[in-house]
Amino acid sequence: MMNNNPLIQSLKEVCSFLDEAAVEYMLVGGLAVGIWAEPRATVDIDFLVSIRINDVEDLKQRLTESNRFVFIHDKPMVFGKVFFLRATLKSNPDVSVDFLFVDDVFKNEALKRKKAIQLTDFSVNIATPEDLIILKLVSGREQDRLDARKILDIQRENLDWVYLQTWSEKLGIGIGDSE
User: Are 54 and 107 in contact (CB under 8 A)?
Assistant: First the structure.
């Protein structure tokens, strides 16, 4: 079923590129929400990558040399406190791929906590539910707040509430109704 899904095929291709390029990564967007909560419509794939914003040229060079990507924007974009580089896959130009930079202590810690999960015939690294909630709340967009709420509701019994509270206080974001 999921094997024929163009978004999943694109996810597989980007994971393959990141593995080959030895870039540490984890899935963080709508697809990750679909894994921890429930699927929702999305046309992009979001990754947190082990590259700092200062090293954006290095990432762009790796993407260009792979011959798999086309840049939508030449310079990094920003939503809330989240900086990212956006590209599309030549194999599927309808799918945009956002590479979020590890530009603070939280994102660095979150990347260390990533989980590997099996999807159809490949493995993908994904943010833990707690880290995904925090990343969504830091972004501050309405859809991200809704995503965070959905994960909180569905994963409530499994969440590390001390970890969530600690980081939400450090980052000055509200988690909403906790435990």
Answer: no
Digits of tens for pLDDT over the chain (179 positions)?
A: 355 788 899 999 999 999 999 999 999 999 999 999 998 888 899 999 999 888 989 999 999 999 999 988 888 888 777 889 999 999 999 999 999 999 899 999 999 999 999 988 999 999 999 999 999 998 888 999 999 999 999 999 999 999 999 999 999 998 864 44
Only one residue has tokens 């925090």, namely 134
Report the amino acid identity of residue 157.
E
Domains and CATH numbers, the chain: 2-127 (3.30.460.10)
**Nearby residues of 119 by Cβ (< 8 Å), 6 or more positions away:** 2, 8, 11, 12
Q: What angle do CA 75, 50, 132 make, to 5 degrees?
A: 95
In whole angstroms, give the CA distance from residue 25 to residue 48: 6
> Taking Cα atoms as reference points, which of 116, 123, 139, 109 lies closest to residue 14?
123
Name which of 10, 12, 36, 17 is nearest 129 in CA terms.
36
